[in-house]
From TrEMBL:
GO terms assigned for molecular function: hydrolase activity; ribonuclease T2 activity; RNA binding
Membrane-crossing residue ranges in chain numbering: none
BP-aspect Gene Ontology terms: RNA catabolic process
Protein name in the entry: Uncharacterized protein
UniProt cross-references to Pfam families, sorted A to Z: Ribonuclease_T2 (PF00445)
Alphabetized UniProt keyword annotations: Endonuclease, Hydrolase, Lyase, Nuclease
Lineage of origin: Eukaryota, Viridiplantae, Streptophyta, Embryophyta, Tracheophyta
């Protein structure tokens, strides 16, 4: 991705998600904290440890959530998208953090999900 496009993407993500933490984290600290959490969680390895691979296979939504909760200690929110064949696919995994932005917490509420009970974990 060209550098200008990266700047646009990061600017958008900061405006959409990061500004709510602006009194605690500046833009650079926000992204650094997010990267630290990503590396700490290592969700791909957590899923692979449970036999859930990004190979185009189908897995139950509950098994994905359970594997992540077992690996991280926290319940995730799973977001799915729908492919051209109307199959539900794993798209994003969300966690909640405390007001410092650096510690995971249990989410007080989850948005209404749109995942089927059986979802594809697409290869990437």
């Amino acid at each position: 991705m060209p550098e200008q496009r990266w700047r646009e993407v990061l600017g958008h993500e900061w405006e959409k998600h990061g500004t709510c933490a602006e009194s605690i984290l500046d833009e650079h600290s926000y992204f650094q904290t997010a990267l630290n959490l990503k590396n700490q969680l290592n969700l791909l390895q957590t899923l692979q440890n449970a036999g859930i691979e990004p190979d185009g296979g189908y897995y139950s939504l509950s098994s994905i959530k359970e594997a992540i909760k077992e690996g991280t200690g926290y319940t995730p929110f799973i977001e799915c998208n729908v492919d051209e064949s109307r199959n539900s696919q794993l798209y994003q995994v969300y966690f909640c953090v405390d007001t410092s932005g650096s510690q995971l917490i249990e989410c007080p509420v989850f948005p209404r999900g749109r995942c089927d009970s059986r979802i594809e974990f697409p290869a990437f």
